[in-house]
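Box 3.1 A note on notation
Throughout this textbook, protein chains are presented in two layers. The first layer is the amino acid sequence; the second is a token string describing backbone geometry. Keep the layers aligned when reading.
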Amino acid sequence: MALPALLLSFPEIRSTAQGLYWASGLAAFGVVLNRFNVSLTSYGGYREFSYFPSAVEIFVTVGLVALALQR
């Protein structure tokens, strides 16, 4: 999350569509990577416990991604 914040501090990046696209893509990738890391470290020791996102979580995620890509 630090790299997108740093990139957005430059006016050249903020003023172009491509710069905003890459900064927001890196931010989204950071969130996904964090979620993946938490799932590996938190649930890794419990073999009898498995986690799969509910349908509501999947629909909200797909909806947010679709809303972001709409523009």
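The radius of gyration is 16 Å. The mean pLDDT is 84.
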